[in-house]
Amino acid sequence: MKANPNLAVLRVLARQGYGADIVSGGEMARALAAGMAPDSIVFSGVGKTPAELAQGIDAGIGQFNLEHEEEGHVLSAIAQAQGQRVSATLRVNPDVDAGTHEKISTGKADNKFGVPIGQAPEMYARLAALPGLQMRGVACHIGSQLSTVAPLEAAYKRIGQLIADLRGGGLSVDRADLGGGLGVRYRPEEVVPWPTDLGEMVARVTKGWDVELMFEPGRVIAGNAGVLLTQVIWVKPGITHPYVIVDAAMNDLARPALYGAYHHFEAVQPSGETMTAHIAGPVCETGDTFAMGREIDRVEAGDLAIFRTAGAYGATMASTYNSRALVPEVMVDGDRFAVVADRISAEMIMHAERVPDWLKD
Ligand SMILES: *Cc1c(COP(=O)(O)O)cnc(C)c1O
User: Fold this and answer.
1) CA–centroid distance, residue 43 to ligand 1 (Å)
2) Residue 266, SS3?
3) What residue spans of the chain are helical by DSSP H?
4) Which residues pair with 92 in a beta bridge?
5) How far is the CA of 2 from the CAs of 44, 114, 166, 243, in angstroms?
6) Among 25-39, 90-104, 121-135, where is mean pLDDT lowest?
7) pTM attached to this predicted model
8) Which of 1, 21, 148, 313 has the most ligand 1 atoms within 8 A of CB, as the residue to mutate?
């Protein structure tokens, strides 16, 4: 859900039978609005509020992934007060290094997500005894943009051992939520694992687990299904290379500024010539730079170009910084297309702001 929460995109997935992994009441509203069955929705997230937990119970959410023990006690109490018993898993932190960018790595021991795997058996036993919970199993998600399945394999082996330990202690386990994290190709020369590589490894490692397996892929579904279309405003001379100033910026696609991420840049109608340039947006921040000294298609003011792999963690991370509009989103299906999110202008955002009485004269 967090990779691309556009309603039309969710609708495509809902029609194919996908559920969703959500982390907020807002994401829950979107999943339900897109037609996803409540029992196919998993509520994850390290900061679910008691109000959101109650909302999730009311909506009939299929599974709550608990991030720590106290959350389970609160969830149980709310469920019990409503005369219900809800399905839950315990998110464990398998303490493997995902080998990815530190800001999108979630599976090392001293991380805010999940509980240390060594403490999981005792916690699980206490949670399983609570009247409002039905503990179904364990969950993990070790990070994003993984470039090999090796860290996932290491994590899943630990999960397999944990499931055996839990059962050895007389506890029931019938689900294992194995998270997401599969990387996608941002650079043309990049080699990333395919979903079939993950499938082969999972089939091998989880043999005999006797559980329902669940997956939470995000980036791999949406990443390369989307591009950010932009127009070159100026080509400005620079000291080392010219600056290609485009009308897209860090508020539209935050990943380069946030993680130093690479997004491939191509002219919509390439001339065949290339140039070495810096690519930057109009926002008044040095961080609003998409590339430095990169060899790209030769472009001029007025040319259209795209940043590739913008379908995941693109529009969903957009802001209106510098009072820039939110870009519209367009879905393309074969030879048809539709605007699936309107441009949200600075004027529309101003409508939601108020000047207090004492300033009105
Ligand atoms: C972000 C996230 C995912 C999806 O990660 P991808 O790398 O996009 O596949 C899955 N599960 C949880 C709990 C997440 O936070």
Assistant:
1) 12
2) strand
3) 7-15, 25-33, 50-59, 69-81, 120-128, 150-168, 195-205, 219-222, 255-259, 346-350
4) 115
5) 11, 18, 31, 32
6) 90-104
7) 0.94
8) 21
Q: What is the chain's percent helix, strand, coil content, to nearest 5?
A: 30, 25, 45
Summarize pLDDT for 171-228 with one digit per residue, the tens: 999 999 999 999 999 999 999 999 999 999 999 999 999 999 999 999 999 999 999 9
Measuring CA to CA, which residue among 104, 102, 23, 29 is closest to residue 67?
Answer: 23
Q: Answer for the pair 31, 41: CB distance below 8 angstroms, yes or no.
A: yes
Which of 88, 61, 62, 60 is closest to 74 using CA atoms?
88
Q: List pLDDT tens digits, range 242-293.
A: 999 999 999 999 999 999 999 999 999 999 999 999 999 999 999 999 999 9
Distance CA 231, CA 57 (A): 46
Closest-CA residue to 323 (of 347, 359, 291): 347
Task: From the CA of 146, give the closest atom in ligand 1.
Answer: 7
Residue type, 360: K
Tokens of 266: 């191509």
44: Cβ below 6 Å to ligand 1?
Answer: yes
Residues forming a β-bridge with 330: 339
Mean pLDDT confidence for 229-240 = 97
